[in-house]
């Protein structure tokens, strides 16, 4: 269960939000309301991708990422610039651990600048924080 402590840390930095236990899931629920949940999905998929050690698995995951998020008219197409997209297209046959890094960075900055501030202001986040504050969170010293 999410704690007040964790929820309060999210407002300190975007990094705190996306690297916490429940943050990505809750942020994704919020992004769905903005119809941009492909951003966090792509970012999390890239995090998982970087941990793959088998080349065979890496190739299949890279293709999956490419067809879902990168290629023109992809079902969950992310908003990255043409050079970043072209670089991925060039590397997709022999995908390295880092071939999505630039796209991931672009999407991270985009979320941090754009939807993250709105998330903090949203009813969604405020209500969550409020409900945890009023439930007299027991982990906050008795």
UniProtKB/TrEMBL annotation:
<dbReference type="InterPro" id="IPR016137">
    <property type="entry name" value="RGS"/>
</dbReference>
<dbReference type="Pfam" id="PF00615">
    <property type="entry name" value="RGS"/>
</dbReference>
<feature type="domain" description="RGS">
    <location>
        <begin position="13"/>
        <end position="129"/>
    </location>
</feature>
<dbReference type="InterPro" id="IPR044926">
    <property type="entry name" value="RGS_subdomain_2"/>
</dbReference>
<dbReference type="InterPro" id="IPR036305">
    <property type="entry name" value="RGS_sf"/>
</dbReference>
<protein>
    <submittedName>
        <fullName>RGS13 protein</fullName>
    </submittedName>
</protein>
